[in-house]
Amino acid sequence: MANSSTLNTTAAGIDAVSDRVGSGPSGRKPRKVISQRNIILYGLLGVAALYYLVPLYVMIVTSLKGMPEIRMGNIFSPPLEITFEPWAKAWASACTGLNCDGLSRGFWNSVRILVPSVVVSIAVASVSGYALANWRFKGSDVFFSILIVGAFIPYQVMIYPIVILLRELGIYGTLTGLVIVHTIFGMPILTLLFRNYFTSLPEELFKAARIDGAGFWQIFLRIMLPMSLPIFVVAMILQVTGIWNDFLFGVVFTRPDSYPMTVQLNNIVNSVQGVKEYNVNMAATLLTGAVPLIVYFVSGRLFVRGIAAGAVKG
Amino acid sequence: MSTRAEAPGPTHASQTHASPAKANPARSVARRPNQLFRNLNSKIASIPMILVAVCVFLGGTLWTVVYSFTNSKLLPRFSFVGLDQYYRLWDAPRWVISIQNLAIYGILSLIFSLAIGFLLAALMDQKIRFENTFRTIFLYPFALSFIVTGLVWQWILNPEYGVQSIVRSLGWADFTFDPLYDPSIVIYGVLIAGLWQGTGLVMCLMLAGLRGIDEDIWKASRVDGIPMWRTYLFIVIPMMRPVFITTLVIIASGIVKVYDLVVAQTSGGPGIASEVPAKYVYDYMFQAQNLGQGFAASTMMLLTVAIIVVPWAYLEFGGKKRG
Amino acid sequence: MATSVSIRDLSLSFGAVTVLKDLNLDIHDGEFLVLLGSSGCGKSTLLNCIAGLLEPTEGQIYIKDRNVTWEEPKDRGIGMVFQSYALYPQMTVEKNLSFGLQVAKMPKPDIDKRVARASEILQIGPLLKRKPAELSGGQRQRVAIGRALVRDVDVFLFDEPLSNLDAKLRSELRVEIKRLHQQLKNTMIYVTHDQIEALTLADRIAIMKSGVIQQLDDPIVIYNRPRNLFVAGFIGSPSMNFLRGEINEVNGQPVFSTHGVNFSLAGYQTSEPLKAGRKVVLGARPEHIAIDSDVMGGEAHEAVVDIEEPMGADNLLWLKHAGHLMSVRIGGARRYAPGSKVRMAFDMSMASLFDAETEDRI
Question: Is C134 a domain residue?
Fold first, then answer.
């Protein structure tokens, strides 16, 4: 209130209007920080946040405990004695029933699958999206519609025909085969993403390039690509998390020695032989979740943009 | 189109969309090039998309539907048996349980994820502090795979060490909550995990929808003296109908596919209590070597999705024609 | 005259950004006040403060001699019309009008009466059963006004209500709003960036720049006697000609000199002495420069026509003189070829002189 009185005097000096500001309410309405509204608001948000955070917390503390401690305490209690042994075991020597060299094999398999799949699927889809946005031909929209409808078809419906197709081509069970499968099923969402993005670019730009004599590939490589970095990043985020998290295609289209990480994780945790080592299991789970989590935390808003673009515009 | 194509003239070659880079001068004087070569580069570039759309999505789906009427066992065989596979399917207790589970899981998952997702979005829209932190927390499970999700919740719901044992150790010695070992409630255990993974996405979509509402609408309702909850209920939610419908379709078509979550969390157990259609399909196609059953079951899944998607697509794109 | 809305020492800042600074403003009962300025000048912010949609950092707001600074918008006795109409899209026009009253638990017969009155005044009776999406832009804006009308309030607030309409509709609705004001005689506060709207509608205009009111006056006074260089340049289209120079004395009479040419300042009204050597800016509106036959005796200067812009009723001539390029408005029938020579003179009784440093009117 001292503030308002000083303001009063200065105002009087400037405007030569004395006593403009009367008594009574003035300025910002005072508000308690701890109001009923805020308690409810942040209370609800806090409870929700707890529900979402607890599993992550449980994974971390469990993975840092020894088995005796797990059998003694409860899953929420922090580790009395931190040990990284479960992590080492999960990475290097956990058993899947087939072999006992841990998740490392699955990790490298996943990397080998991920890199070409991301590159090929984005390359193919970006060119398709570009053709659909700027070089439409008779029937192109029909194919695109089929593609988008196809995004809703359960994978289980198309999986067996693809098995036959790949077997005929002699690439069933190979890395090439799996890359093709990821490219196929990434295509609807990615093509949509790129088509919408390229359509949003000013058409004049494209027309100007046409008049300057540039062709299909020149315009794509020289004009469209340099302007599209953000959408490529969004597509990459989408594909990296999507392909890394895939389980079904990994099971169906690879052989046991080249199973991706998710499949191997499931085999380690759900293998029936031996004593259950919950700490190793949780370490393995965290290791498998680490890649998409890192992508998520690093990319932040772009991740949100990616899923929003993928979801809402669909 | 045809009249224009017949009209000869030197200007036409330059009118074609993407004449190949090295245009033949002799050709530009001659007739208009064949329709097939118009925009040729674009067509070449679209071959993968066309192949995927036609051969895989369209062809593959038709193939599966057709073969669901055969008695293929280990290998697909083209011998029709009519609706036999479907009769067998609906006679199988495992399939019926799968469908029941899908219905329970699906309906509850829709209701809860829409309700929780909208509630969280509405809370987030109150100009709160730490909005980014909360968003990050609510959405991170969506970045994780269903396998990871299933395994974590398998551990948390573990009756010996998890929630049940903790509540018991707090004094309620009779407390029982072991969904993963109780066939009658196992699907709710899966539901808890599924909601954990997916509501963040719904929250994000809803928040985007809320942010898309004209600020002036809020101002107008304040001037009119309409309390906030009534503004949400009678003005904002009706305005967000398209967002709700789109979200509903996205979640619903995802629910039909639910597979990894169940595999990781319960492996369909105890017994067959948490089986789902997608798992039925996989098991019959790749393990029981009864392809006909797998095809029939996957065709039923397709039908379910069609029932969800077709009316929506008709509403969304049918009227306007252009999407 | 009684005061309807009174704003006292109002300040508003968002963090380090100050949007409104110690603003004082008294609006009379039944007055049509226009807040005019370019985007970001704080005019909409001020309106939102009056409505109670934004909280001021400092200062008070009185409506009808009641301190409403901390009151909710609904309790302030105001109705508001928005640029985007802000109609509730899922409700019929009738429901849009009555919803606020229903929430306030007004008896049904009273609501019906109010809706009927509003729809009669605005002639939207036939539209009552329709939804906003089925209405044209002009109809929607009328419904939006109706929603303010049924609240039966003392003060109407308009936040750029016509900006989303095309030019023709805008001028039509402008007339309607003016008629509405004459009929209802309520206090109306109207925010716009369109100077034509401001000049045609306002009893008084408040021109704002960076959160400060530059001039508050009759439209005619603002047009003819702008208080500073900003107001002079902001109002009027095509805009006022500005010539930089200084005051000199020739034969004991003050003159305006620029690039070695002298213009007599005889006829310029000011209370200040026009001291020689003062750096000034001379402002003259295009219609206040006389050429050829319009020059009424006195001195005249020779200028060269650079280009002409015929606009139908008027013809805008661009003249080059003494290193300046200035526009002159003449009748549409009078044509000049580029390069032709004309005699020109300023109508000093209508001109404005500004101090070059303070930019204030002399």
Answer: yes
Structural domains of chain B sorted by starting position, each given as residue range(s) with its CATH number in brackets: 1-33 (no CATH), 86-318 (1.10.3720.10)
Same domain, C31 and C170: yes
Cα A233 from Cα A230, distance rounded (Å): 5
CA distance B88 to chain A (A): 19
Instruction: Give chains near A: 3+ CB pairs under 8 A.
Output: B, C
Q: How far is C68 from chain A (nearest CA, A)?
A: 8
- For residue C24, the surrounding DSSP H or E stretch is strand C17-28
Q: How far apart are CA B89 and CA C287, in angstroms?
A: 90
In a domain, C91, yes or no: yes
**Same-domain pairing of C116 and C182:** yes
Is residue C226 situated within a structural domain?
Answer: yes
Write out the H or E segment, with its range, that includes residue B104. helix B93-124
pTM as predicted:
0.84
- In-domain check, residue C362: no
Alpha-carbon distance of B309 to A253, in angstroms, equals 28
- The domain in which residue C173 lies consists of 3-234
Could you tell me if residue A139 is inside a domain?
Answer: yes
Q: Which chain C residues are within 8 Å of A26, Cβ to Cβ?
A: 58-60, 69
Domain total for chain C? 2
Q: Is C21 on the interface with A (CB under 8 A)?
A: no
Interatomic CA distance for residues A241 and A46, integer angstroms:
27
Render each residue's pLDDT in chain B as its tens digit; 323 residues. 333 333 333 333 334 444 444 444 444 455 666 677 778 888 888 899 999 999 899 999 999 999 999 888 888 888 888 888 899 999 999 999 999 999 999 999 999 999 999 999 999 998 888 888 999 999 999 989 999 999 999 999 988 888 888 888 888 888 888 888 888 899 999 999 999 999 998 999 899 899 889 999 999 999 999 999 999 999 999 999 888 988 888 888 888 888 999 999 988 878 889 999 999 999 999 888 889 999 999 999 999 888 888 888 787 776 554 43
- Give contacts of B 16-75 with A, CB under 8 A: 17-18, 20-21, 38-39, 41-43, 45-46, 48-50, 52-61, 63-64
